[in-house]
Design a protein that fits this description.
The protein is built from 13 helices and no strands. The chain has 273 residues and is mostly helical.
């Protein structure tokens, strides 16, 4: 390598190193193009200097709004928040991007990541508030028809199934709560709604058992629910039969007590003059 070429490469390395140290000042003075500012932000991001990376991406978005790199910077900001598990900031960034650029060529990526952000923000324990899981489901529903051929379809389907199962589990837990209080109509409503909305949920056997017991507590025929359970999970049918029998017997005793109480009240009523 010739001496002039060696000096030229060393000078380039020095300039790059100086740029990493004093880039904010350079960008503020408009000495860097949109691409250079964006690439500087990428270098900061790769080094884990998130604050500096965000600063550069925001500069691109603010001072080069009509440049294609402004779109890339907006997505880079959302991605940095996502990687730092700053779910609210990431959600807002993705939502703002969708509103501002509804015809973006790779919109499927944005929808996928927005749904994933909502899913991650929601608590994994089904008993807790699942508002964000519901929003993730709403975001991903219809993804395959909206973005046919997207490389993210398989991932969306997998997480959409997990999100729906989480929501379904929430409904079963509520039905179980009412079951402990022997509130037959409430259990029936929750269980029937669950079975209609979540046809692939792994919690369907429990929902069918709860529905059969709810029927027994209301003097209704539990056979249809037990027959569905037989087709879905036959090994759970014996336990369901026992639960239905116990619920029916308990209900019969409660009805008998109420009738006896009503008869006693009639007997002690004074005769009409």
């Amino acid at each position: 390598m010739s001496l002039p070429r060696l000096f030229s490469r060393l000078a380039l390395v020095a300039v790059l190193a100086l740029g990493l140290r004093s880039a904010p000042a350079a960008a503020a003075g408009s000495r860097l193009t949109a691409q250079q500012t964006y690439e500087l932000g990428e270098r900061f991001a790769r080094r884990g200097v998130t604050n500096k990376a965000l600063e550069q991406f925001n500069r691109v978005r603010t001072y080069f709004r009509d440049d294609p790199y402004a779109l890339k910077a907006e997505l880079a900001i959302a991605e940095l928040h996502y990687k730092k598990q700053e779910w609210d900031a990431a959600r807002l960034a993705y939502e703002d991007f969708l509103r501002a650029h509804p015809r973006y060529v790779d919109l499927d990526i944005v929808v996928w990541k927005l749904g994933k952000t909502l899913f991650q923000k929601a608590p994994a324990v089904a008993a807790k508030d699942q508002t964000w899981t519901r929003q993730a489901v709403n975001t991903w529903t219809g993804f395959s028809s909206r973005f046919p051929g997207s490389v993210h379809t398989a991932e969306v389907d997998k997480f959409l199934s997990r999100a729906r199962n989480r929501l379904g589990r929430k409904e079963v837990l509520i039905a179980r709560f009412y079951d402990r209080r022997e509130a037959g109509p409430a259990v029936e409503g929750r269980a029937r709604g669950f079975l209609a909305e979540y046809p692939t949920s792994p919690d369907r056997p429990e929902a069918l058992t709860l529905l059969a017991v709810a029927y027994a507590r209301q003097d209704k025929d539990a056979t249809p629910a037990v027959d569905q359970l037989q087709a879905l999970a036959p090994h759970k049918v014996p336990a369901a039969h026992r639960a239905v029998k116990h619920a029916a017997a308990r209900h019969a005793r409660q009805v008998a007590r109420e009738q006896a109480k009503a008869e006693r009240q009639v007997k002690v009523q004074p005769a009409a003059p």
